[in-house]
Design goal:
single chain, about 240 residues, alpha/beta, TIM Barrel, two-stranded parallel ribbon, 9 helices, 8 strands, about 15% strand, globular
Length: about 240
């Protein structure tokens, strides 16, 4: 009996650990992950910027395709590269909160969660003015108490339903194939224009992949929208 109880306890802990990081999981509270299957909408999202030179180059690609995306910016990088954050906003993209310095919130106290969010929100307000109420937890990590802290700050948590795994890719083609191999419609797609460890992370593969992805997805009848536009389409 004790052995069965111990096994059950370990299984419960493993499940809880999995759900703190699994982007599609809704066990610890509702998060937005997409429009659902059957939709012809796709939402490109980019984490960990602003980051030069890759964020500006990505903006050029998006402008050429006339696509608007959703950027989750790290507060301390906004403070260091305010002009790039302003370029993102001026181009009409949606800006969301990605904490001040990208900690994993599963290890953070409620006070730390709110401090991270508020510091990022303050620098965003000072730099770009009014912006969205969207929030993406670093690494996708969250707990029930972390999500409660997010909502106390008036923000809506956004995860993703499809990742290009671009932070570990060995080529642009690898990023492109990971997305195209799984896209069905309705996905929030996770990509990165920066890196959380430092400014200057090489995102050349992402920029090239995005150029190809937009064209290929449009050829298949998909339409690119921002996360707020996708949310509105579901509500309408």
């Amino acid at each position: 009996m004790l052995g069965l109880l111990a096994t059950a306890g370990l299984a419960t802990l493993a499940a809880a650990g999995y759900n703190t990081m699994a982007p599609r999981s809704q066990l610890f509270g509702r998060t937005f992950i997409g429009a659902g299957r059957g939709s012809r909408l796709l939402a490109l999202t980019f984490d960990d910027g602003p980051n030069d030179p890759w964020t500006p180059r990505l903006l050029e690609i998006l402008a050429r395709h006339q696509v608007h995306a959703t950027f989750f910016l790290i507060g301390r990088y906004v403070a260091k590269r305010p002009e790039i954050a302003q370029q993102v906003a001026a181009a009409g993209h949606v800006i969301g909160n990605h904490t001040w310095d990208h900690p994993n919130l599963i290890f953070a106290s409620p006070r730390e969660v709110e401090t991270q969010i508020k510091r990022c929100a303050q620098v965003l307000q000072q730099t770009v003015g009014s912006h969205s109420n969207l929030f993406r937890p670093p690494f996708g990590g969250r707990t029930p108490q972390a999500l409660r802290g997010v909502r106390r700050c008036g923000l809506v948590p956004v995860l993703w339903s499809l990742s290009g795994w671009d932070w570990e890719a060995k080529s642009a083609g690898e990023v492109e194939n990971k997305v195209m191999g799984s896209v069905e419609g309705g996905e929030v797609i996770l990509l990165h224009d920066g890196g959380h460890r430092q400014l200057g992370a090489d995102r050349s593969y992402t920029v090239t992949a995005v150029d190809h992805l937009i064209a290929r997805c449009r050829d298949q009848g998909f339409h690119f929208v921002t996360v707020p536009e996708m949310m509105k389409a579901i509500d309408d």
